[in-house]
Amino acid sequence: MLKNSATGLVIVSLAASLAFAGKFNKVLSVGSPAPDWANVQGTDDKQHSLSDYKDAKVVVVIFTCNHCPVAQQYEERLIQLQNEFKNRDVQLIALSVSQGAEDNLAAMKAHAQERKFNFPYLSDLTQLSGRAYGAQKTPEAFVLDRDRKVVYIGGVDDSWADATAVKKTYLRDAIEAALDGRSPAVPETRPLGCGIEYQ
């Protein structure tokens, strides 16, 4: 267990997860238990934990940030996904581990309000959650099933620059599969976006 006393952030199973490297992810693979996290500050001025969403059938953890233009391109698509699945007990959670000035909590609050995010937007300045999940890009999605096993790792779709050109909806397909108790046809993709800068 790793604990940061300054923020109360708790990550469990980090060491264990290192044994589960995937095709593109160096830390987790599909089928791995999702690393836990707790007491992460949200733009709603509340502390959030993965366990807060225990009633969700599917949880989607998306590592993102304010400053990345690729992440910005996907924001409306993520809002649409949450709207599409909100009545099917699916919860999206956006998590930033960026320590840049453009990504401080005040900037995140303003950004979430401006873009009308309909999902939690959390700030983990310890970066422990990103390390535990092996997140390398923004955005990078992790779909967790009812048992909080990782069933998908990777990108949202195959066209970050143009939503009208999307042919492969990896994240949507993975959510549908998880809701049906199936494995996604494509369980892992290489995420496209800005590299996460770990300190």
Radius of gyration: 15 Å
Largest sheet: 7 strands, mixed
Question: How many β-strands, per DSSP?
Answer: 12
Instruction: Please bin the fraction of helical residues.
Output: 10-25%
Class derived from helix and strand content: alpha+beta
Which outline best applies? globular
Query: Segments where pLDDT lies below 50 for 5+ residues?
Result: 1-19
Task: Give a structural overview.
This protein is of the alpha+beta class and 199 residues long. It is 24% helix and 23% strand. The protein has five helices and twelve strands. The strands form three sheets. The protein has a seven-stranded mixed β-sheet, covered by helices on one side. The protein is globular.
List keywords for this structure.
globular; 199 residues; seven-stranded mixed β-sheet; alpha+beta
List the helices and strands and how they pair.
Blueprint: E1 2-4, E2 9-12, H1 14-17, E3 36-38, E4 40-42, E5 47-48, E6 58-63, H2 69-85, E7 90-96, H3 105-115, E8 121-123, H4 128-133, E9 137-138, E10 140-144, E11 150-154, H5 170-179, E12 194-195
Write a brief caption for the model.
By secondary structure, this protein is α+β, with helices and mostly antiparallel strands.
